[in-house]
Amino acid sequence: MAKTFWVVGGEYADTDFIMIAGGGAPERHGPFAAYDDAKDEWARLSWEHIDDAHVRYTIDTEDARAYWVVGGEYADTGFVDMASGQQEERYGPFQSYKEAQALWQQMSWKHIDDAHVRYRIDHV
Q1: CA–CA separation, 3 and 32 (whole Å)
Q2: Rounded to two decimals, what is the model's pTM?
Q3: Which of the four CATH numbers 3.30.70.2400, 3.40.50.300, 3.30.1330.10, 3.40.980.10 does domain 67-123 have?
Q4: What is the per-residue pLDDT across 78-87, written as a single tens digit (0 to 9) for each?
């Protein structure tokens, strides 16, 4: 199976580059079939934000094509431990990122008013 490449990142809350500002998901640009194409996009985005110390992009390699929407209700906004009595929810697999993104968006909007609910897209 051929590798695909994504440029991932955006504006982070601080220069630890762990959490996206505002708590959202990182931007994902791609997929790119060739590393050089991903590198060109990474360079374009990085130069576009050269004066913002909180913006960072990386190139992510992806070998698999199965995507999962994962998340649920967490104990707090650190989004590490599930709320008491809750288990992590997993939806999928989806064959494309776009399919998974559609469900992720639906689930996220469904719980927009609950600060303890978060979903993400994983690939395996």
Answers
A1: 9
A2: 0.52
A3: 3.30.70.2400
A4: 888 999 999 9
